[in-house]
Structure formats: structure tokens, C-alpha cells
Amino acid sequence: MAADDGGNMDSNFSEEKLMKIEAQAAVREISFAVEFVEISTKLPNTDERAYMNIRTKEGTKFCVELTVQGYRIVGSQFDNTDDTTDVSDSIFYETIYALLDQHSPKYRLTFGETLAGKLQCLQQVQGNEETTEVQ
């Protein structure tokens, strides 16, 4: 089992076990701002690595790999890792949002519009609560 040397090994073990869970959460969180997203059923998803298929609102397809290093694009088609992808040349993104922000202007626009809409709803709810308290 993992030794407790200040939490480092336990922490790494926990992060690796969470790859599939994190990929599932990412699918749920970005589905509103992309045309299509799923966890790959053809590539091997493990506790250390998960693959997602994403089609942006621009119609661009990506196969995205998630590891403890982060998210990176590994292919330009669903369920396909390009043999030409060199790990040393790959850009890893800390979050799926950062990856999409860099590669999909329509994602950025949709995210901003959705956030503005939620803030407006929150403002209306707070305004209604203040009106109710005054009466």
C-alpha cells in the first residue's frame, strides 16, 4: 500500500484513481458549451488515464487524454490518438475549460453568455428577497 511520507504517495494514488471520475465530471460540466462530448468507449480508460471525444461548436473534433499531468489533445478524430503526437511537444492544460478556451472561440462565447445569464438570475432573486424583506 502507499506509504505515508507527508502524503505525497497517498495524494498521487488518489489523483490517479480519480481520472475516470474527473473525466465523467468534465463531460457533465462542458456539455452545455460544446456540440458533442463523451468518454471514449473504444480507447482504454483506466484509473491513470481517460479519453474523451469532443466536437466543438465550430465542428472541430478532438480526442482528449486526461492524466495526472492534465488534459491534452491527442487526436483530431474521435477514439483516435494520432501516432504523430509527441508527448514532449504536447501542451497539457490544467482544466478542460482552459483547453476549450484555447481551441474554441464559441465555447468562450457560450461560457460567458451562460455565466452572465446565471448572474442576472441571481441578481433578480436577491432583488426579490430585498423587496420581500421591506414589506
List the defining traits of the structure above.
single chain, 135 residues, alpha+beta, copper amine oxidase-like fold, 4-stranded antiparallel β-sheet, elongated, disordered N terminus
Short description:
It contains four helices and four strands. The chain is α+β, with helices and mostly antiparallel strands and 135 residues long.
Textual characterization of the structure:
This protein has one domain (8-134): Hypothetical protein (hspc210) (copper amine oxidase-like fold). It has four helices and four strands, in the order ααββββαα. It has a four-stranded antiparallel sheet with strand order 1-2-3-4, with helices on one face. It is elongated, with a radius of gyration of 19 Å. With 135 residues, the chain is an alpha+beta fold.
